[in-house]
Specification:
alpha+beta, Beta-lactamase, 11 helices, 2 domains, 16% strand, 8-stranded antiparallel β-sheet, two-stranded antiparallel ribbon
């Protein structure tokens, strides 16, 4: 009898463990247990179902965790508008730039191990970036705009890569400049490039700004990803899986989806003009290059475990990924008052860092620094980022809250704002 009871207890434990992993964190018995209103959260469900019915997105997975427990975890719409399969809770989404926080955490882990120092010059590990020049637009005697070159006043550092002040940019986003034109000519964003080829091409293009002077959302995290590969001798997919995903019990995060899980991939609408998916990357096969700036996939329950580790000060379920000090450092504004800001790319759906909206930039995320300057609800000290394919997350330490929005519909800045309003209005104590 004792043996039977032991086996039964083990079976229950296994079931509970699976349930926790399946939803990322333990489930609250109801939202009220963690200070949220069931009635008010229904407004969130109703609003997003309405957006699905308008065709704004095929479907969504929404997750809100508070005080270490899942308070809200709902799906709506379809996983793939071509098949009309219902959206499952464990749908796998393209994260796009929500890859960047994973790479930033891995960087801090290597710093804690003494394998790098944040103020190391990038050229220490990637010599192609030694002696970079900065592109400066000038008018010639004929009134034409030309690109002149001046030496970089200092080298870009790993710290610069983390905070997007390395002088790099994105060629395909924002107002066109002559440096961005050089990015386009070099086909920096080509999916055919290997990581060494990407670095070789990028290092031949002038910097868009003097290092340390300007926040410009950029390919900096892609450079950082390859820098980690050089230091460790492993590819980025292996680094993130072995150092972060496996220890945290994150099951589906990675740069591709195994064949057995292809039926869980969330898909976007088809662009009627081109006949192509609006979120087109084929995640059924590994990419040619594991880009630090994007390319990962994950479920909502995967990402909430990653966020809970950060909210806990670097630890989850007895597994420590980072020290508390490193997490505090990552989630503190690192941009000095003298920083210049380039207009944030609209496709990311966020205001980005700027004193005008009370936001700075830490080491991997936007950080809210002021309460009264931002049109969206939130708390001082919160940190967040989004993905161009439609995903978003934020962590609010003051409210002990994590919010994950998973959709595959690009340029959803209004949808993200709507979710913020509807989540914060559901807080009751």
């Amino acid at each position: 009898m004792h043996s039977i009871m032991q086996r039964a207890g083990f079976a229950v434990l296994c079931l509970l463990s699976f349930t926790v992993i399946a939803q990322g964190l333990p489930r609250a018995k109801n939202p009220e247990e963690v200070g949220m209103s069931s009635e008010r959260l229904k407004r969130l469900t109703d609003a997003f179902k309405a957006e699905v019915s308008k065709g704004i997105m095929p479907g969504a997975v929404l997750l809100v965790a508070r005080r270490g427990k899942v308070a809200y975890y709902e799906t709506m719409g379809v996983r793939d508008p071509q098949t009309n399969d219902a959206m499952p809770l464990d749908a796998i989404f393209r994260l796009a730039s929500m890859t960047k926080p994973f790479v930033s955490v891995a960087t801090m882990m290597l710093a804690e191990e003494g394998k790098l120092v944040l103020n190391d010059p990038v050229s220490r590990y990637l010599p192609a970036f030694k002696g970079m020049q900065v592109g400066v637009e000038q008018k010639n005697s004929a009134g034409q705009t030309t690109l002149a070159l001046e030496p970089a006043r200092r080298e870009m550092t790993i710290h610069d890569l983390l905070r997007h002040t390395a002088g790099l940019t994105y060629g395909q986003f924002g107002a066109k400049t002559l440096v961005k034109t050089e990015y386009d000519k070099a086909a920096i964003s080509s999916a055919e490039l290997t990581a060494p080829e990407f670095i070789a091409r990028l290092s031949k293009i002038p910097l868009a700004h003097q290092p340390g002077t300007t926040w410009d959302y950029s390919v900096a995290t892609d450079v950082l990803g390859h820098l980690l590969e050089v230091i460790t001798g492993q590819d980025l997919d292996t680094i993130l899986r072995e150092r972060i995903s496996k220890p945290l019990g994150i099951r589906d995060a990675g740069f591709s989806v195994p064949q057995a899980n292809h039926g869980r991939i969330a898909e976007s609408h088809i662009d009627k003009a081109t006949g192509q998916r609006l979120a087109p990357r084929n995640v059924q096969v590994p990419p040619q290059r594991f880009g630090g700036g994007g390319g990962m996939v994950a479920t909502a329950s995967d990402y909430v475990r990653f966020c809970q580790m950060l909210l806990n000060g670097g630890e989850l379920d007895g597994v420590r990924i980072l020290s508390k000090h490193s997490v505090t450092m990552m989630t503190t504004n690192h941009l000095p008052a003298s920083t210049r800001y380039t207009p944030h790319i609209i496709t990311q759906g966020a205001a980005g860092p700027s004193p005008d909206v009370g936001q700075g930039w830490g080491l991997g995320f936007v950080v809210r620094t002021d309460q009264g300057k931002n049109p969206l609800p939130g708390s001082v000290g919160e940190y967040y980022w989004n993905g161009a394919a439609g995903t978003a997350f934020w962590v609010d330490p003051k409210e002990q809250m994590i919010v994950i929005m998973m959709v595959q519909a690009p340029a959803q800045q209004r949808l993200r704002a709507l979710m913020r309003h509807l989540v914060y209005q559901a807080l009751v104590h």
